[in-house]
Amino acid sequence: MQSAIKNDIKKTKREPAKRIDYIMLITVILLVIIGVLMIFSASSVQASYEYNDSTKFLRSQLQFAAIGFVFMYIASKVNYKIYKDYVFIIYIFNIILLILTLSPLGVSVAGAKRWLNVGFRFQTSEFSKFACIVTTAYFINLNKYTMHKLKSVIIPIGFLILNCALIYVQPSFSAMSIILMVGLIMIFVGGMSVKFMLISAVPFGVGIITLMMKQQYRMARLISFLDPFKDTSGRDWQISNSIYAMASGGLFGVGFGKSTQKYFYISQPQNDFIFAVIAEEFGFLMSVLLIFIYVFLIFRIFRLFVDTKDTFGKMIVCGVGLQLGLQTIMNIGVATSTLPNTGIGLPFISYGGTSIIMFLSMTGVLLNISRYRVSKRKKEVVK
């Protein structure tokens, strides 16, 4: 009898869950729908002025979202463990993309080379986010029993530094910072000792501050964060108008499509400051509800992290959850002036083809991992 129970336990541990996490899927679809609606509202004025077509950004985002959902479906069907076999190909391909971005093939916008033209503008740092997550997860899984030793963390940190250096020179300071933070936190969660974490945090912190101070516009953003209303017609116009937009929304908002701050008072209303338009048109209550939706999605990802027993899969879940959570916090923090301006989009909502394609693709990877999670039924059998 006992041997039969043990065999049943072993069998249940091996069997993948037959259903993906549909709650996670529905939550992501809801965020994409909100994003499409708000991009139409936030971008209509700018699109009419620049392209004589108020639906220009809307139609582009719908196309990108459709591509993203196709990639998400494919990723949800592909066994996530295959990334372990091709991790170096993924990383090298990522490095090649970053190098090509800096070459004459790269597209320069406002003095920054962050895109490749592949029929549409492809922002290579967005792919780097996934590539670094998979690469870091691979090394953590490879050294899962020795992550407390320095030799086990040097190599993944070196891969991160190389990647971040190529992104920095584009320049894309915000993307570099978030990739570095996600990678280091993953390594810490994977077993890096507190001593090594503290030792590495100091030089990385000093390095980031030094790089920030080297560029005058980054220092201007920091000063603007400290006093967002000192120069509202100059240096502080972005953040001050973002605050005005949220304040004018009140409790219930001015109504969908009725934002006044999107009339060239807010920079990139369909992208970096789309949360300000949401707050203005739908008010404080809907803004809090949107934040709750993100918190709920992060909670679902955290549950998947707990229920995933394979180290490689667990660390991919950790990385994607950190990427989503940190980027959400940074975007909303900038719009509300609780963080310095970083120029980073709101996941699933802000306009951006590469961003929504990559976030939906990473969601597909999570959905595939959710097939192999330990379900409640299996936990009961194990007990």
UniProtKB/TrEMBL annotation:
Q: What is its main location?
A: membrane
Q: Describe the reaction catalysed, as an equation.
A: [GlcNAc-(1->4)-Mur2Ac(oyl-L-Ala-gamma-D-Glu-L-Lys-D-Ala-D-Ala)](n)-di-trans,octa-cis-undecaprenyl diphosphate + beta-D-GlcNAc-(1->4)-Mur2Ac(oyl-L-Ala-gamma-D-Glu-L-Lys-D-Ala-D-Ala)-di-trans,octa-cis-undecaprenyl diphosphate = [GlcNAc-(1->4)-Mur2Ac(oyl-L-Ala-gamma-D-Glu-L-Lys-D-Ala-D-Ala)](n+1)-di-trans,octa-cis-undecaprenyl diphosphate + di-trans,octa-cis-undecaprenyl diphosphate + H(+)
Record localization: Membrane
Taking the record's annotation, the residue ranges forming a coiled coil are: none
- What InterPro entries does the annotation carry? FtsW/RodA
Q: Which cellular components does GO assign to this protein?
A: cell division site; plasma membrane
Enumerate the GO terms in the molecular function aspect.
lipid-linked peptidoglycan transporter activity; peptidoglycan glycosyltransferase activity
As recorded in UniProt, its EC number(s) are 2.4.99.28
A single BP term in Gene Ontology? regulation of cell shape
Q: How does it sit in the membrane?
A: Multi-pass membrane protein
> What are the transmembrane regions?
20-40, 60-76, 88-107, 127-145, 157-190, 243-261, 273-299, 311-336, 348-369
Q: Which UniProt keywords apply?
A: Cell cycle, Cell division, Cell shape, Glycosyltransferase, Membrane, Peptidoglycan synthesis, Transferase, Transmembrane, Transmembrane helix
**Similarity comment:** Belongs to the SEDS family. FtsW subfamily.
Explain the purpose of this protein: Peptidoglycan polymerase that is essential for cell division.
User: What is the protein's name according to its record?
Assistant: Probable peptidoglycan glycosyltransferase FtsW
- State the organism of origin: Peptoanaerobacter stomatis
